[in-house]
UniProtKB/TrEMBL annotation:
UniProt keyword annotations, A-Z: ATP-binding, GTP-binding, Nucleotide-binding, Nucleotidyltransferase, Transferase
GO molecular function annotations of the record: nucleotidyltransferase activity
Entry protein name: sulfate adenylyltransferase
EC number(s) stated in the UniProt entry for this protein: 2.7.7.4
Residue ranges constituting the Tr-type G domain according to the UniProt record: 4-216
Top-level EC class: transferase
Length: 419
């Protein structure tokens, strides 16, 4: 029997709207945390004269994790009868945005939490916008803390209307809007009877209807060259197949150099030669003609190749402490390519909570701001529009040793000069 694939989810929402509580509750209800562990934390809370909070459970797990393993694996698992899940939200707003933008994480689906008492707030809107920008279309909204308003149906409907209206403005249609109490466990894994007026799914049932985003192998081939080796007198171009499939005998184009040749072999270190390799595999290929190309080139098929461009319009999130400015040069990294680019214009600066354009032709972006920026590149690179191919449509902006921000390619001026 095939193992069901893990669904990767992010849990987003305004601070204090109940993310940790919801995660703790999901773990508890699905038995991801042994009862003994739960009892231990309950006892500690009691000894300290505090009420039990699922959030403490999460804090305790978080601490353990930090002591034991690296940040990279700050992922947490639970499972339903249908399949395993992993929550890939790293704690903290900045970290989350950074991971999402840089592609450190890529989620199949999201739970957007809204506090039923407070209603839609700034980060609710900002996070929803990020989900939209990142193309996460499988979204379930949970209206939380309804125990605090006696599971009032009207209050729920008011919040539901507000969030639906906002999501509509960012092109997200939520699969479900669910009235919950993360603390009490209402409509999380079970119906406890607090919302007899609600006949939709629980949070777990809603998650179980989502699908894994598995477009990668069916997309056109993108094999960014990571290294070029010479071995036994042959040149081997090594890298990870980001999307699509590469097959022996394929006619391919290397971009941006534009060199065309055929794949002579597909190989894996220490293994017999392969007929083909697909998305996610780290491989080497040799070609019929010896090409003198470098790291950063992308191998693709003719007819479905990425665009070669020196000018592009991108939506960027800025995260670094110092402002992002027009006229300045930045190092952009896309897959294995690195290019120096000048920000020639911030065509629009957006208020990241309301998404309104606050300024046109702006001079700078401050931390956590969003802008539509035109870049001129010092050299060619091969890229895709984000809507066509997430992996080659997203880049990171370096700012000294740190990540300054991330960008999503909206449009390019291609070689011929047309947008
Ligand atoms: P986060 O900042 O989004 O992770 O929010 P937390 O999970 O830390 O929750 C913030 C506060 O809201 C905590 O005191 C929780 O106990 C409380 N809270 C979370 N969910 C519920 C709920 O369903 N009902 C009630 N009454 N309180 C909740």
């Amino acid at each position: 029997m095939n193992q069901p694939e893990t669904l990767k989810i992010v849990i987003v929402g305004h601070v204090d709207h109940g993310k940790s509580t919801l995660i703790g509750r999901l773990f508890y209800d699905t038995g991801a945390i042994p009862e003994s562990r739960y009892a231990e934390i309950a006892a500690t809370c009691k000894a300290q004269g505090r009420e039990f909070e699922f959030a403490y459970l999460m804090d305790a797990l978080e601490e353990e994790r930090e002591q034991n393993i690296t940040i990279d694996t700050a992922a947490t698992f639970f499972r339903t009868a249908t399949r395993p899940y992993v929550i890939i939200d790293a704690p903290g707003h900045k970290q989350f945005l950074k991971n999402m933008i840089t592609g450190a994480s890529s989620a199949d689906a999201a739970i957007l939490l809204v506090d039923g008492v407070e209603g839609v707030r700034e980060q609710t809107r900002r996070h929803a916008y990020v989900l939209s920008l990142l193309g996460i279309r499988q979204v379930v909204v949970a209206v939380n803390k309804l125990d605090m308003v006696g599971y009032d149906r009207q209050r729920f409907q008011q919040v539901e209307n507000d969030i639906r209206a906002f999501l509509h403005s960012v092109a997200i249609v939520p699969a479900h809007v669910i009235p919950i109490s993360a603390r009490a466990g209402e409509n999380m894994a079970r119906r406890l009877g607090g919302t007899p007026w609600y006949d939709g799914p629980t949070v777990l049932e809603a998650l179980d209807t989502f699908e894994n985003v598995r477009a990668d192998r069916s997309l056109p081939l993108r094999l960014p060259v990571q290294d070029v080796y010479t071995w036994d007198g042959r040149r081997i171009y090594a890298g990870r197949v980001e999307t699509g499939e590469v097959r022996r005998g394929d006619e391919v184009i290397f971009l941006p150099s534009g060199k065309i040749t055929r794949i002579r072999s597909v190989e894996k270190w220490g293994a017999p030669a392969l007929e083909a390799a697909g998305a996610g595999e780290c491989i080497g290929v040799t070609t019929e003609d010896e090409l003198f190309v470098e790291r950063g080139e992308v191998i693709a098929r003719r007819g479905s190749a990425p665009v070669k461009s020196r000018e592009l319009l991108a939506s960027i999130f800025w995260l670094a402490d110092r402002p992002f400015r027009t006229g300045q040069s930045y190092l952009l990294k896309l897959a294995t390519a690195e290019v120096i680019a000048t920000a020639v214009a911030i065509e629009e600066r957006l208020d990241s909570s309301t998404l309104e354009v606050t300024e046109r032709q702006a001079a700078e972006l401050l931390p956590t701001e969003v802008g539509n920026v035109r870049f001129l590149l010092k050299s060619d690179w091969a890229c895709d529009l984000y809507g066509d191919n997430i992996r080659l449509g997203r880049f990171v902006i370096e700012a000294g040793p740190q990540i300054g921000g991330g960008g999503i390619i909206r449009s390019v001026v291609d070689e011929a000069g047309s947008a």
